[in-house]
Design a protein that fits this description.
Layout (H helix, E strand, L loop, with lengths): L10 E5 L4 H12 L3 E6 L10 E6 L5 H15 L4 E4 L14 H29 L2 E6 L11 H21 L4 E8 L8 H6 L3 H5 L11 H12 L10 E4 L8 H8 L2
Parallel strand pairs: 1-2, 1-4, 2-3, 4-5, 5-6, 6-7
Amino acid sequence: MVSRAEFEGRTVVVTGAGGGLGSAIVALLAGRGARVVGCDQSDEALASPHLASRHVFDLLDRASVEAAIAAVLEKDGVPDILINNAGWTRAETLDALTADRIEHELYLNLTGVMIFADPIVKAMAARGSGNVVFISSVNAIAHFGNPAYAAAKAGINAYAKSIAVERGRSGVRANVVCPGSIRTAAWDHRLAKNPDVIGKLQRLYPLGRIVNASEVAEAVAFLASDRASGVTGVVMPVDAGLTAGCLPFIDDILGA
């Protein structure tokens, strides 16, 4: 049984703390004793009572990110754990891409994340300990649309491995969680177009359903904990079996 004091005495920074998945991560880690520092792009997004400290910045604004790093380190110290969760996409197919959308999604989901994480990782390494968990996506493993976002998330997977390899001797671990579809507000625009889309998703997933935010948060908590002390450089899908294989091929072709 997992201890309710598992993260007692540890400071955890969570980006995108006000989103659907971010909120689940914040609540879970705080419930297990962590001092959680929330980061998001508005004060309204950081209203959770589980947060001990709050920082507002925009990943698309380098000056804002750099100011936030300084503020986090000054106010909250070098965190024990960094959860890089913030991300966003809307360009869903190659046809939807424009130069501006490519630049926007790559910067938000990769460049901005690296600019924020890099000084914190270096501070962790200088201290001799630290743990980083990145939220990537199944889109980084196989193509399910959102090509610019997918490319950025594949970059995140590679960046995490670079930290694992180059900072491991300094006591820093880095791992990645790749969620499949999660029913959060990120799906609202699709549901507005087609209310049946969640039902259609289910036949793609071997478990017969999509995952929920709490299931993804549990994987994050495991990788962030001492239970995973020997785990680094891992890319872990939490996707109800989506990337294990193509269930519709089994159903429609082999089972026909």
